[in-house]
Design a protein that fits this description.
about 325 residues; alpha+beta; 5-stranded mixed sheet
Length: about 325
């Protein structure tokens, strides 16, 4: 009887792997003794990548930088001119009460054309057609809303475009003054003349509007973080608010929502030491998600389109998409 018959057999490939690992560990130990300051992480020649930038790409980037600088200088000197109204603009949107979503104008036109074609081809009675029309009228509702932020005391601004090397320095400086330094970060701003002019200067990079009290409450409760000793701390306890803002009479989240929803006179006058300024300084910029995921934007090629600038009351829907 063989005495080694009860022993478990080890595959030869595993023995070779163990031998190679032992040899590698011995080699590293010898290198550490001879030269202890040398890092173990080494970059091989195969892992080095050479990035080639085409001349057309450089020209396109230069053109974008020049156009952005020209727009910034024009708006800083002449303002928005006819591109921004000084009066409140009211528009209407169509709301589908059954699907509980907003109906696009193009989809509404297609639906109306389809209904007209069905009426022309149908042989039903007039009573059935009248009942269908009544159902459609009850299903769709026209709701008026403000399309700009004129008359608002507070606006919420979100950075929607990256500030890359093609972005001019004056635009980066203005965004930094507004505390918009990262993509998909949002801040509350008092809607003063100075703030409005700065938002006009960087309008292609930001999305802003007048949020409702309900939207502000959802933002603070779901994405609220505060600044305590220079650190980002989650806003999960009212004790933090009372400890940091108790000297101005704010002790809970409801007080923060009330201050943010209606900016006080000191904020409208531009005083940073007022209640609104202290609250915005206490709150960390809100980190939101993109309206389109990476899969949708890259694989499905779904673009954001020309959605930027002042959105008025429609900003509430965009904030809820980014929460």
């Amino acid at each position: 009887m063989n005495p080694n018959s009860d022993l478990q057999l080890v595959p030869e490939t595993l023995l070779k792997k163990r031998h190679d690992l032992d040899a590698l560990q011995a080699k590293r130990a010898a290198e550490a003794i001879n030269n202890p300051r040398v890092s173990r992480k080494r970059i091989s020649d195969k892992s080095k990548k050479v990035k080639v930038v085409k001349a057309e790409t450089i020209l396109i980037q230069s053109r974008h930088r020049k156009n952005a600088r020209t727009r910034f200088n024009r708006v800083s000197k002449k303002g928005m001119q006819t591109r921004a109204s000084d009066k409140s603009v009211v528009k209407t949107k169509v709301w589908d009460s059954v699907k509980e979503e907003e109906v696009d104008e193009k989809e509404l036109e297609k639906r109306q054309e389809k209904e007209q074609q069905d009426k022309a081809a149908a042989d039903d009675s007039d009573d059935d057609e009248e009942e269908a029309d009544e159902k459609n009228d009850q299903q769709l509702h026209k709701i008026p809303y403000k399309a700009n932020s004129i008359g608002a005391t507070t606006v919420f601004a979100v950075l929607i475009r990256p500030t890359i090397h093609t972005t001019p320095k004056p635009v980066k400086k203005t965004l930094s003054t507004l505390r918009l330094r990262r993509m998909q970060e949002g801040v509350f701003l008092p809607y003063t003349d100075a703030t409005r002019k700065m938002l006009h200067l960087v309008e292609p990079y930001v999305l802003y509007g007048m949020p409702s009290t309900e939207t502000i409450s959802d933002l603070v409760r779901r994405r609220g973080f505060c600044r305590v000793d220079g650190k980002r701390v989650p806003l999960a306890d009212n004790n933090v608010i009372e400890r940091e803002l108790g000297d101005v009479g704010l002790i809970c989240v409801e007080d923060l929502v009330q201050v943010l929803s209606s900016a006080s006179l000191d904020a409208m006058e531009g005083e940073k030491d007022g209640t609104f300024g202290k609250v915005t300084k206490f709150l960390w910029p809100f980190r939101l998600t993109s309206r389109k995921s990476k899969f949708q934007s890259k694989m499905l090629d779904l673009k954001e389109g020309k959605l930027y600038g002042d959105q008025g009351e429609a900003m509430n829907g965009y904030i809820r998409e980014m929460l």
